[in-house]
Design goal:
Layout (H helix, E strand, L loop, with lengths): L7 H54 L1 E2 L7 E3 L3 E9 L5 E11 L2 E6 L5 E4 L4 E9 L5 E3 L2 E3 L6 E8 L2 E8 L5
Antiparallel strand pairs: 1-3, 2-3, 2-9, 3-4, 4-5, 5-6, 7-8, 7-10, 10-11
């Protein structure tokens, strides 16, 4: 006469295998969730950098020098100028901007409004100003003029040993 059922050994082997499968599934799901979180963080960082570049491009593209925006003051690590910025109502309003490095960040201080943090973890910022375009282009380290602005601004940022260079074309020369 044969008995039906499982031996104690067979039950222990089945429980061990089920525990291993559950542990491996947990590790896989945890890894997927961690990777998803890192992708979201990287995407948010890239979005912030892209928005900062768009903001800089728009600010320099609508730069005004002279009567409306005041003088363009460019130093090797800081630039101050007038520009037209979008408003909450959908139009544009004149604004005075001071661009430079503060507390390890690239910051644009907008007169009468909140500062705009354009980049974090910055170790150095250098600005150069294009005086003459063409094959014999001429960049200068300073630009101080009450009535005109450079043709372009070259912004170099250093972060953790890596350098990033942005070429920002200036709108109407003023």
């Amino acid at each position: 006469m044969r008995r039906s059922g499982f031996t104690l050994f067979e039950v222990l082997v089945a429980l061990t295998l089920a525990s291993l499968v559950a542990l491996l599934a947990h590790r896989v799901f945890t890894a997927v969730l961690d990777a998803s979180r890192r992708v979201r963080e990287a995407q948010a960082h890239l979005d912030h950098e892209a928005n900062a570049r768009r903001w800089l491009t728009a600010a320099f593209g609508s730069l005004t020098a002279g009567t409306v925006g005041g003088s363009f003051d460019g130093e090797p690590g800081r630039a101050t100028f007038g520009t037209w910025l979008p408003t909450a109502a959908g139009g544009f309003a004149p604004a005075r901007i001071a661009l430079g490095m503060e507390d390890g960040r690239l910051v644009a201080r907008v007169a009468g409004a909140d500062s705009v943090v354009l980049a974090d973890s910055v170790t150095a910022v250098t600005l150069d100003y294009l005086l003459e375009p063409g094959a014999t282009e001429h960049w200068v380290g300073e630009w101080i003029s009450p009535v005109s602005a450079p043709l372009a601004v070259r912004l170099r940022m250093e972060r953790a040993g890596a350098a990033d260079t942005l070429l920002l074309l200036v709108g109407p020369r003023g």
